[in-house]
Amino acid sequence: MSDSLALKYSPPIEQLQKELRVLGDKMGKKGVTAGLKYAARPVQSRQKAWAQSHRKTGALEKAVSTMVLGARTILAAEILNKPDSAAVSIGPNRKSKGKSVSYIGRFLEYGTKAHDIKPKRVRFGKDPARALSVGGKFYRRVNVEGVRAAGWIQKSVDGVDIAGLFYQGLSAFIDKQGPATE
């Protein structure tokens, strides 16, 4: 019996190492971003489903999207402190009907307390008056009921295997790139 065991790999180990080196150079930030976007899909669809079931105008549902954070955004500056880092934001990122509605998502996620809205000082002729126009009627004060925190953004992430989906997306990106050549 022989003291050493000779194994033959198909393809040879040297070829695999060479392909991995080339793949590492090709992949970089694009591969990580592709994996993150793939992992974000079920989270985004859950958020859209929740927004659709709690809709009044449909604006929040249309605003839910996955946005790749560029290096110049403030949030990305905190997250992306390495050159090959990538980040995505999932939630109400887009404008709907020309208006930003992301603040509505925040109100629904964390809730609001009951409060009064007082109008700014408005002048009618020479007499100063306080008035707030809502639906064509003028009010001196509007009492707003609070909104209970729904936690809809956090609920959309719970139960989703983000890491597993990330690696599936990364694998799909690698498969798209084709065989590595130097």
Compute the number of helices.
6
Strands ordered across the widest β-sheet: 1-2
CA-CA gap between termini: 41 Å
Coarse morphology = elongated
Main beta-sheet strand count, sense and barrel state = 2 strands, antiparallel
Beta-strand share of residues: 15-25%
Low-confidence regions: none
Task: Write down how many β-strands occur, each being a DSSP E stretch of 2 or more residues.
Answer: 10
Structural class: alpha+beta
Q: In oligomeric terms, what are we looking at?
A: single chain
CA gyration radius, whole angstroms = 26 Å
Mean pLDDT: 75
Structure description:
There is one protein chain. By secondary structure, the protein is an alpha+beta fold. Helices cover about 45% and strands about 20% of the residues. It has helices spanning about 15-55, 60-65, 75-80, 100-110, 150-155, 160-175, and strands at about 65-70, 90, 95, 100, 115, 120-125, 125-130, 130-135, 135-140, 140-145. The strands form five sheets. The chain has a two-stranded antiparallel ribbon. The chain has a two-stranded antiparallel ribbon with strand order 3-4. It has a two-stranded antiparallel sheet with strand order 5-10. The longest helix is centred in the N-terminal third of the chain and has 41 residues, at about 15-55. The mean pLDDT is about 75.
